[in-house]
Amino acid sequence: MARLMKILKTLRNHWKKSTFAGCLIAYGASYLNERHRTNLLMRAFCEEAKVYGERTLPTGLKPRHVTVIVNPTAKDGKGKIQYEKYAAPLFHLAGIKVSYFQTEYQGQAKGLMEVMESTDAVVIAGGDGTLHEAVTGLMSREDYATASKMYPIGVIPSGKTNTLSRSLFWQTGMTDARWIAESAMAVVREQVDQLDVLRVTLDPASAEEPATDVEKLEKPEKPKEVYAVAKLEHGVFRDADLLVPKYWYFGMLKAKAAYFFQAIKEKPRATIARLGLVRPCEGCSKCYVPPKEEVCGSTGRWWSVFLPRSAPQAVTASGPDYSRIENEDCGTWHYDIVEACSLELSANRKEDQGAVSVAVGPPLMGRTEFMQQGWRRHSKTPGTTKHLLFAKDVDLKFETPEPENKEEEETPKTKLSIDSVEYQADRVIIQLFPRALNVYCTRQ
User: Fold this and answer.
1) How many angstroms separate the CA atoms of 76 and 105, rounded?
2) pLDDT tens-digit profile of 286-297?
3) In this structure, what CATH number is given to the domain that contains residue 76?
4) Rounded to an integer, what distance in angstroms lies between the CA atom of residue 387 and that of residue 273?
5) What is the DSSP letter of 358?
6) Are β-strands 231-235 and 224-228 bridged in parallel, bridged antiparallel, or unpaired?
7) In 3D, which of 199, 233, 259 has the Cα closest to residue 422?
8) How far apart are CA 197 and CA 435, in angstroms?
9) Which Enzyme Commission numbers does its entry carry (predicted)?
10) Which H or E element spans position 9?
11) Chain centroid to CA 142
């Protein structure tokens, strides 16, 4: 008893050191517990992957071949380590042949996807930027309709922003190890879903403004086309989100700090734009595409040349006859002038798959409301939206802002984010490609 009292007295006399030691012990215990749980989790995933690897292949069938494109700079170099620790072992245990490519410069993932062949699937280990490059390269091919189905894409969330992977795999309370392992196991299990793709044309040539004599002599600039699977974003919230990493020293409160200091710095300003859209159509005579006839070929045997050939038969799909349905609004453009603090165009939302959702924010917003809306965004709580529209095609033309320095002749272009990648354009045209991309996902 006397010894216990002596220990308590020592702890009381040196309370600062005791508090520091207690915090250090608590952190160490929490770290060891989390590491033990991660080891148990990976053991379970490895045992499941091993079952796939021990399956006997039919004679003449080669093992699956997966090409992995890794961004070594993702998450400041931690993304590559996480892939090698939580995803690569599962691929090897499943008996998958892995071809490993490590990007060395910006745009290399796009170039690789443009010439990709002789593989069964492609896995992207990186953030939104790497995935954006890969999808753009795949959809830019001349044979994109075939290639997008032939090469399913797996997404390993090893970047700072993982918008698509979050919508496919993320669950509340999930650790990075489980998140990456679940994404890798979706590739092993061959669980494929079809997602919509947005083709975004930046600054297309306007037929409303005829070219001058000088512009006719110059070589016309070709509009830039990129492809997205998540969202296009513009406005005050997008600008504030770019400042969040700057306040890293606030820890878990860095997002709130970014919105707080941004609200103090300047009042949220609205953007004026001309919004044109084509409403989605479920099918009519205007957009109806007749199915191709499937011709029964020969059996491949030598005696088939002596057998009578049957006439080709068209395969008729069950369902409504869209060739007889009339929709006068199909393909018609509707234009309006919108004034909003934020604009967000997204695809692949569960409630509106097959259409582009256009979320138009309020035109005016105070500093307090701006902070509250920003904090809701980072807490995954839906914010305030003035209008929520759905479209098949979208034409968005921003009003050109006046330059801050009047001596400058060129006015700055509008900044926007496409799949978390920054672009500058005064006009964008968005076209929806429904169910155009095969992506590995969890069980539905």
Assistant:
1) 15
2) 676 665 544 444
3) 3.40.50.10330
4) 14
5) E
6) unpaired
7) 233
8) 7
9) 2.7.1.107, 2.7.1.138, 2.7.1.94
10) helix 2-13
11) 22
